[in-house]
TrEMBL record:
It comes from Microbacterium saccharophilum. GO terms for molecular function: monooxygenase activity; oxidoreductase activity, acting on paired donors, with incorporation or reduction of molecular oxygen. Residues 8-301 form the Luciferase-like domain. PANTHER family: BLR5498 PROTEIN, LUCIFERASE-LIKE MONOOXYGENASE. SUPFAM superfamilies: Bacterial luciferase-like. GO terms for cellular component: cytosol. Keywords: Monooxygenase, Oxidoreductase. This is LLM class flavin-dependent oxidoreductase.
Amino acid sequence: MTAAAPFEIGIFTFGELTRGAGGAGDPRARLEQILEWARVADQAGLDVFGVGEHHRPDFAVSSPQMVLAAVARETDRIRLTSTVTVLSSADPVRLFEEFATLDLLSGGRAELTAGRGAYVESFPLFGQDLRRYDEYFDDRLDLLLSVRAENPVTWSGTTREPLQDAGVWPRPLQEELPVWIAVGGTPESAVRAGALGLPMYLAILGAPRRFRDLAALHRDAAAAAGHAAAKLGVTSHFFAARTTQEARDAFFPHYAAYFAENMPRGGVLDRATLDTWAGPDGALFAGSPAEIVDKILWEHEMLGHTRFLAQVGLGGLSQRDTLRSIELLATEVLPEVRRAVAAG
């Protein structure tokens, strides 16, 4: 009997820029910080490193594949993923070529996470009709999977010209480039990912219990379509320190700033709310390593996921504190989670 793959833990960032926060508002400085996060994560033993795509003045990363190519040359073993690639406004053929190139540069460590994106600025930027939002994603996911599955590829759809026996090069080093689907909270998206046999990320920013049904829909759809159980990953905001008090005291002013800049409709974040969100059944991971281990295991028991990605560097946290948080995740959280999951 084949042993189950170990539980995976990693980090990711959107490269957000926080005004007046020790270099975190300068895109060049931010990118250098991100490269250091990746080096430390790789050396400390984390499994996955990701960057996400935005086309806004308050984010430093518009091309995950470019940043990940730089990371590939700075690291040795950690897997490299987009978190996410806005597939609706991308050319899937070009996207596949770029991630196949990343896979070659990294020695077979590339993954692609496709999503619609939390913002819609890429639609007018690339001359697309926002009214065709769902059509673009469905059509281009179909093309991406077709290019992955066959070469040359013959394909036709509704959002671009058809392909007839078209060769797409280079091919990745891995036998099949991993493609994940990022889901915010839509049941239809979870069902689609499962029916296609694709692994899925749940971005958990609200009460984790609300996502139990989405995880079940994903599993059931995969089983109904005759696929082996597709992987499930969870992403959450994160900061760790030696003690719970130390973590929340250090994190609160930065997270409140992040909240004010990135979620203005939510109003002002007060300390009591942060403590509630970071509590045992909240979505926020801000505490001691032991507390974070307990929450990952609680969510694993509820959702059945086998990968956890922590969003780091929020709100202009210092580079020192961010790196220390990453090290604690790797050296104290990951081993304990793996030990507990392996023991059942």
